[in-house]
Amino acid sequence: VTTDAAVATIASRVLDMVGGRAEAAVTVARVREGLTRFANSFIHQNVVDEHVEVALQVSADGRPAAASTFATSDDALRGLVDRTLSAARLRPVDPAWPGLAPPSALLETGDAHYDEATASATSADRAERVAAFVAAGTPHGLQGAGFCETAYAERAFANSLGQRLEFRTTHAGIDGILRSGGIDGVGASYSVRFADLDAAAVGRQAADRARKAIDPIELPPGRYEVVLDRRCTAALVEFLAFYGFNGRAVAEDRSFVKVGETQLDRRISIWDDATDPRQYGDAFDAEGTPKRRVSLVEAGVVTGVTHDRLTAARAGEGTETTGHALPGGESFGAVATSAFLGPADPADTESAASLVSQVERGLLLSDFWYIRVLDPKTLVATGLTRNGLWLIENGQVGPSVSNLRFTQSFVAALAPDTVLGIGDDGGLAYGDFHLLPSYVPSLRLASWNFTGNAST
Amino acid sequence: MMDLAAAAVEAALAAGATYADARVVATSEEWMSAQNGEIEALRQDERAGIGVRALVGSSWGFAATSDLSPAAVRRIGEIATETARASALVSGPPLALAPVPAIVDHWENHCDEDPLSVPLSEKGDLLVAVTAAARDAGADIAQANYQIWETHKYLATSEGSRISQRIRECGGALEATAIGDSETQRRSYAGVNGQYGTRGWELIRELDFLGNAGRIGEEAVALLSAPQCPERTCDLILASDQIALQIHESVGHATELDRILGWEAAFAGTSWLDLAQLGKLRFGSELMNITADASLPGSMGTAGYDDEGTPSHSVDIVRDGIWVGALSGRDTAAIANIPTGGMIRADGFNRIPMVRMTNIGLLPGPHSLEQMIAETSDGIFMETNRSWSIDDHRLNFQFGCEVGWEIRDGVKGRMLRNPTYTGISPRFWGSMDMVGGESEWVFWGVPTCGKGQPVQVGHTGHPSVPCRFRDVRVGVQG
User: Fold this and answer.
1) In whole angstroms, what is the distance from residue B465 CA to residue B246 CA?
2) Can the peptide bond before residue B190 be classed as cis, meaning omega within 30 degrees of 0?
3) Which of A15, A24, A452, B343 is the S-S candidate for A405 at Cβ 3.0 to 4.6 Å?
4) Which of B400, B66, B95 is nearest to A40 (CA)?
5) A94 at the B interface (CB within 8 A)?
6) CA torsion B443→B449→B451→B456, rounded to 10°?
């Protein structure tokens, strides 16, 4: 049994087994995750997962191949090495092979993204938070559904150029709805520390929204000014990260991005920074490049894109990786996994209530649902509203509105002169894919194109 | 491996569980991709471990580990029970399990040609040739890939089942992209993100990627200059690959019993269907017959047993347009007072088994695509999904296809770009007045169905045929 071995030790063993037969890079991750799901106000799924994954990338005389295993015995690791080398020898030389990451130190030091209590949180701890969330709806006859999670990971990276990195991280979240009769209100909180999750407060927010969402009216589709909760902003950022700032998409002209041009509103900036304590930590990428802050948009001007070693090499002109290689992402490109969207001028924020108060007639959105891109270059996407939608008239939140379908370019939504206000409520939120947390505020936007009613 | 699963079950019971099951799962996956005549990536991944599910009172717990030592599997059995006890802190109503017989068996699907045994060099040569041909036909970006999975499962339950399975799956995809000044256009083969099945490499050979690569590349380029699909209401004919996606989103997910019961409300959503309407509700026209059949040879949702040990069988979901069945497992079926459908699957050892689609398919009808076109005076024929979005009740959808073809007076005419259509599920299925015949029945495979938290990726099959729908809103633009 070797799963208790240090991840760095396992990485070194694999490198030793490869020896001088190929260039090699090894990533070893030990993961312990717990996720407690609830619905109809009871816990119906409660999972604990502990595993170790060893991923090996080799290049034998310019012929790369990759493989992974969840087993860590000597026999298993030797098998991993042998089959990876065998596969590499059978494929053609890859003229685009960008080589391994050279030695460089982590920019993040210390344990800002690690919390011992979160790493050791139990299923009973999570159940206690669930109970607090659900209790917020009970006096109002609301039923709860959602999840509470805690996760711990330690990762080690080693390559045959001498790069050696190690990092550990934790994160936690509670995210749920309270509902009655198909009317939902949503609340969520995410942090590196489980102790930061105030489940009762999150539940109260969800309950408040659900109670205000009853008796929705139907509104005709059309263009409306909108105030987006940060969950919606996170969805925008997620799609910009996947399809827009992805260095591969830019190189292949599948992205809207033109570096140096003012493509978004001058009031906003977008950047990626996994070293910021406000984000979930991730000290290095899948190729062993240390994470750092990368500016993508400054005051509306596109300033950069995300690269891995391959997309950087293809971009030429001295372009270097920005540390955004994804595990197994060779064919997809490089993605900002720790994005921020914020005001270009730190003073240019206001409360969410203030954003609403300036809307003559528009809509207040809690959440988006099932967004899919019609064209990656224009970033025209369709999706629906969810978990609370309200009409705003003369600066006041009015009646709840039945869900609407939209068909909207996310680039056009944030284009120059479209951002009318930025909330002071920045925080971690997940977008539609629930893959990448972004640190974002609520936004007031000039126009959003609703193309249909959800139920008629 | 079966001994390890049994030991974990015993440990869970000894810790206080009233029911437990354990699955040792070992999966080998191979994936290769090429772009514009060059191999881009080659990956070979292996995952193995054990997942244990334990029931305490009415509360479930699940725990998994990649450590397959005897001590570790016993420990993970105990943790599963401990986790179930924690669930009981916020417990639900009493829970029963629909009965299944205790079975001892081994099952594996047939492959003419074991896909992992085909030389890597041959597979790579195919991808290189296919992408070069699509590029030479004018595509700016031609990408192709194949995927192979071989999964060994060993299920032990506290009711005495001991079932081992070996499931081999494979498939591939070709995608040609043409890049214009203001937008991109895409054509794919052999359907929505390719074609997959519980078959061997013979599936790849039958699909003839090389023979179709030139056409796909040419169509992608032609789309850039094709007229925009107009926004209007007209008759709509959908190719079988798009019907597969339509079934997946608006029938398959809508009839998952866990959604109907509200268990997925916060994340994947619920369903517009109400259990009280089972057996009475009109879901679509009388030509609509949908089954969930995990026993169809070669289809991607096929297995001998589900992950609770229920033997695969066919379940009617929609019969003559009436909603008559749901996708279920032992606990959800007991709540609904129906026999378990055997639709419980997990994505690997470290994910909890949950209700998943098997082969949710439309049975063939009395018509043909040729007949549909000939009998349509004003309509659009759409092929191959490009975007899909449906609301959290699985009622309102808007789908985009890669290519549309104008139909006037019974003749397929000019190509249309950016075709989309939108509708409300029962109204849309109710407007279906022509259904393709048995010779057009294709078992489409989808290896990318996301559901659950932590997210699980499911492999589903969707037998389907071309169909015609009346008075559909098409051409919605941003």
Assistant:
1) 11
2) yes
3) A452
4) B95
5) yes
6) 110
| DSSP characters over B421-450 | EEEEHHHHHHTEEEEB-GGG-EEEEEEEEE
CA–CA distance, B335 with B330 (Å, rounded to integer): 9
How many other β-carbons are positioned within 10 Å of the β-carbon of residue B400? 26
Please name the residues in contact with A16: beta carbons below 8 A apart, sequence gap of 6 or more: none
Which residues of B are less than 8 Å from A436 in CB distance?
Answer: none
Cβ-based contacts of B64 with chain A (< 8 Å): 47-51
Residue type, B5: A
Q: Are strands B314-319 and A396-400 parallel, antiparallel or unpaired?
A: unpaired
Q: Closest by alpha carbon to B466, among B242, B307, B251?
A: B242
Q: Which amino acid is at B215?
A: R
pLDDT reported for residue A435: 83
* Helices and strands, counts by H and E, chain A: 10, 19
Distance, in Å, from the CA atom of B59 to the CA atom of B95, rounded to the nearest integer, reads: 8
Residues B86/B29, Cβ–Cβ less than 8 Å? no
Are B43 and A456 a contacting pair at CB < 8 A? no
Average pLDDT score over chain B: 97
Query: Chain-centre distance of CA A124, in angstroms?
Result: 27
Query: How far, in Å, CA of B337 to CA of B368, rounded?
Result: 39
Tally the C-alpha atoms within 13 A of residue A234's C-alpha that lie toward its C-beta.
Answer: 26
Segment holding A76, helix H or strand E: helix A74-90
Q: Are B90 and A68 an interchain contact pair (Cβ–Cβ within 8 Å)?
A: no
CA distance B302 to B55: 27
Asked whether A297 and A269 are in contact (CB, 8 A), the reply is: yes
**What are the phi and psi torsion angles at B54 (to 5°)?**
-130, 145
Closest among B249, B242, B296, B187 to B465, alpha carbons compared: B242
Q: Is the peptide bond before A441 cis (omega within 30 degrees of 0)?
A: no
Query: At A5, is the pLDDT very low, low, confident or very high (cuts 50, 70, 90)?
Result: low
The closest of B455, B392, B468, B391 to B428, measured between CA atoms, is B468
Contact yes or no for A452 and B398 at CB 8 A: yes
Q: Spell out which residues of chain B touch residue A88, defining contact as CB-CB under 8 Å.
A: 42
Q: Which residues pair with A54 in a beta bridge?
A: A28, A69
Here the ipTM equals: 0.94
pTM of the model: 0.94
Q: What does A327-376 look like in DSSP terms, one character per residue?
A: TT-TTT----SSEEEEESSTT--B-HHHHHHT-SEEEEEEEEEEEEEEET
Strands (E), A95-163: 143-159
Neighbours of A412 (CB within 10 A): 17
Total residue length of chain B: 478
Q: Which chain A residues touch B84 with a CB distance below 8 Å? A: 46
Burial of B346 (0-12, 13-18, 19+ CB in 10 A): buried
Asked whether the beta carbons of A415 and A300 are under 8 A apart, the reply is: no
A29: Cβ contacts below 8 Å, ≥ 6 apart: A7, A52, A53, A55, A153, A154, A155
For residue B41, the distance in angstroms to the closest alpha carbon of chain A comes to: 6
What's the longest Cα–Cα distance across chain A? 72
* CA–CA gap between residue B219 and residue B460 (Å, rounded): 28
**Which tokens hold the place of A7?**
């991840």
3-state secondary structure of A125: helix
Judge: B124–A52 Cβ closer than 8 Å, yes or no.
no
Q: How far apart are CA B41 and CA B50, in angstroms?
A: 29
pLDDT digits (tens, 9 = 90+) for A307-321: 999 999 999 889 999
Q: What average pLDDT does range B340-346 have in this prediction?
A: 97
Query: Does residue B454 carry a pLDDT above 80?
Result: yes
Cα–Cα distance for residue pair B310/B100, rounded to 1 Å: 6
How many Cβ atoms from other residues are within 10 Å of residue A92's Cβ? 13
| All residues at 6 or more sequence positions from A317 whose CB lies less than 8 Å from its CB, including other chains | none
Sign of CA dihedral B31, B35, B41, B42: positive
